[in-house]
Amino acid sequence: MILKGRNIFLVAGPCSAESRDQLIGTASELIQKVQPDVIRAGIWKARTRMNTFEGVGKEGLKWLQEVKTMFGIPVATEVLKPEHVELCIDAGIDYVWLGARTVVNPFMVQEICSALKGSNLKIMVKNPVNPDIKLWIGAIERIFDTGITSVAAIHRGFSTYYSSPYRNMPLWEIPNELRRAFPELPIICDPSHICGRTDCIQEIAQQALDLEMNGLMIESHYNPLLAKSDKDQQLTPDQLQDILHCIIVRNRCESLEQKLKNLRNEIDTIDNHLLEILSRRLQIVKEIGKFKKTHQITILQSERSKHIFTDRINKGTSLNIDSEFLKTLLKTIHNEAIRIQLDIMKTDSDSIQTK
Ligand code: PEP
Ligand code: MN
Predict the structure, then answer these.
(1) How far is the CA of 239 from the centre of ligand 2 (A)?
(2) How many C-alpha atoms does 218 have within 13 Å on its Cβ side?
(3) Which residues are within 8 A (CB) of 128 and not within 5 positions of it... i.e. 6 or more apart?
(4) Which of 109, 125, 193, 229 gets mutated to test ligand 1 (max ligand atoms within 8 A of its CB)?
(5) Which domain holds residue 278?
(6) Residues 275 and 152 grouped into a single domain
(7) What radius of gyration, in Å, describes the C-alpha atoms of the chain?
(8) Which of 224, 246, 268 lies at the terminal end of a domain, its last residue?
(9) For 221-239, what is each residue's pLDDT tens digit?
(10) Which of 15, 16, 43, 98 for a ligand 1 pocket mutation test, highest count of atoms within 8 Å of Cβ?
């Protein structure tokens, strides 16, 4: 699509194809409102939990074919097994992508690659669910090894056990590292799966373009409330149009200002991590405090704190962190732990609270 005079590669469409009407209806509105380059729709859905919608299966290929002939637009879907590749080739699908749950399994990636060999399909490779750049690189290398040259990576964020403002943390440093490893490889950002909701899609899409990503994959459904998968993160074509109008496409030249912005984005991500980890640590401090109270154990265990200080300073200095700075940081953290546990000892109830 053309955005502010600049060409931005846009893949849009529903998370899943649900019916002929839903797919054709959504595609038609999208084409009218945002002129995507490719229409996407998942027809085989790898779901985390059983008894949820697992896609319409190969029947959906016919609807994708219809979209392709009716509107003259390329179409894309996810392949999870070699058989899916064969069905997509037969149906004249243009793009297929490997999903985050497939990329974690090199054996399956290899089997899919064997089926891809010799085809004209264009391939997009999502990052794996976990923040392991080697798995992502490994899958991309296996695709290159098939001889297929039309390859792009999709950044869809990384899952985390800890609470996070995102469904999948963007961890921008990982796609940035992929860019350094493969400077020519286009990287497309999928803000829908990063956000898991609609209100931060614009911000993430903007950051992706500011980090020089080459395109966007955004989920859109003509009636998201009725969507059978990922309903909270799908935009209506109208909402997508509004968001795209607000996005600023900045110059691609590597200006000093741009470089600074990229580095600051990385700092923001790292700070978010630090805060999540710190919050988890303080939560455990509370649990220990309750345990000490129930078992009548003193708060200060000097052997334990001595060990923590020596161990962390050794580890930290080997990571090039200044030892004086480490001492101050550890003291601050330790003091907060003592304050929290003193507070717990003060409370009247002797029962272990779970909160
Ligand atoms: C999808 O694109 O709908 C999807 C399932 O994506 P991911 O593999 O990123 O979870
Ligand atoms: Mn989805």
Answers:
(1) 17
(2) 33
(3) 100, 103, 104, 135, 136, 139, 158
(4) 193
(5) 256-354
(6) no
(7) 24
(8) 246
(9) 999 999 999 999 999 999 9
(10) 15
| Each residue's pLDDT tens digit, 122-147 | 999 999 999 999 999 999 999 999 99
CATH assignment of the domain containing 279: 1.20.59.10
Task: Judge whether 153 and 140 are in contact, CB under 8 Å.
Answer: yes
DSSP letter (8 states) at residue 232: G
| Residues flanking ion ligand 2, Cβ below 5 Å | 15, 230
Same domain, 331 and 286: yes
pLDDT at 352 over 70: no
- What is the chain's length? 355
Q: What is the pLDDT of residue 206?
A: 95
Ligand 1 surroundings by CB, under 6 angstroms:
15, 42, 99-101, 126, 156, 193
Nearest CA to ligand 1 atom 6: 99
Tens digits of per-residue pLDDT, 252-286? 666 777 778 888 888 988 898 899 899 999 999 99
Are residue 230 and residue 329 in the same domain, yes or no? no
